[in-house]
Design a protein that fits this description.
The complex is a heterodimer of chains A (about 220) and B (about 120). With about 220 residues, chain A is mainly alpha-helical. Helices cover about 65% and strands about 0% of the residues of chain A. Chain A has helices at about 5-25, 30-60, 65-70, 90-110, 115-145, 150-160, 170-175, 195-210. In chain A, α1 packs antiparallel against α2 and α4 packs across α7 (about 170-175). Chain A is globular and about 50 Å long. Chain A starts with a helix and ends in a 6-residue tail after the last helix. The mean pLDDT of chain A is about 95. Chain B has a three-stranded antiparallel sheet, with helices on one face. Residues about 110-115 of chain B have low confidence and may be disordered. In chain B, α2 crosses α3 (about 105-115). Chain B is an alpha+beta fold. In chain B, β1 and β2 form a beta hairpin. Chain B starts with a strand and ends with a helix. Chain B is about 30% helix and about 15% strand. The chains are: A mainly alpha (about 220), B alpha+beta (about 120). The interface of A and B includes residues 33 and 135 of A.
Chain lengths: ~220, ~120
Amino acid sequence: MSELARLLLPIADDELILGWRNSEWTGIAPFLEEDVAFSSIAQNEIGHARALYELAAQELGTTADELAFDRAPGEYRCAQLVELRLVSDWARTIARHWLYESADAVRLEELKADTDGRVAGLAAKIDREEVYHRLHADMWASRLRDEPRFASALEELWPYALGLLPEALRPRLAERVRLPTDVKAQGERGAHTDELEPLWEEMTMVRRSVPGASW
Amino acid sequence: MVYEVFRQERKGQSFQHAGAITAPDAVFAEAYAREQYGRRGESAALWVVPRKAVREIDEFVDELGRNYHRVDGYPLKAKLKEARERAGTADRETPKKGARGGNLVSPVLEGEAEGGA
């Protein structure tokens, strides 16, 4: 696998799986306005995944759809944080959202400085939408900051959030979210929770129902 | 809280009412307003206003019957017709737009105004 694909696939998988998880809130968010906003964020993440897959697919001589849907669950490179099914727990959902967007900000900063112009350009484009996601995540985090359920969700998910980034970038995330640095990351990439497989079953069921079809 | 959102489609244009959103505070209102009315490049700017801050006036008393203040209070067409009849020029054709002087001064109307006053 090319170096570019190795760089992009984990990020694309994170965005796809998190977008999928967040879309589980469509129709059941705590109030309508939030339903619209959160669903839209979920859709953006899947859009980012598509763009990243497309760039990786050019390198690998395949298509974005094949990368997104035709791999076995074990081949996905997403971090464990995005796999967790968190409906109907809004506190944990917002904790993950805020941790993910914070980590994504650190990651995008790196990608925007990439020497490959295609990567840097795409990262800049994605980051323009992420500004809105961060605004949304930050406002929720500050609203829930004093809620004990939110605090314990952050504590629970923080080790998973560290697993989103390569070791070298983790201190920057810790500094950004002001959470302890002396915590071991939960689940390095490549190892999956039990929650990925049921998600994958559902995500790919229609595509697998008519293998090789052109939709 | 309900917030009213106004959007400006292009810089320099006037703001038009876009709709209302429900949000717990001004920060959320901004985020939701961006989401609903600003994120697809459809607006150059937004005004997000708490509905409570909007002063609605829906009674317009006209006690003195000063209907000449209203555009519909001065039925020019009817008055012109009356004036024409008084002047006995009811059949005369009004000069067409674009005819000499037609856009600026209408000799016919001037004549009628004299006759009718």
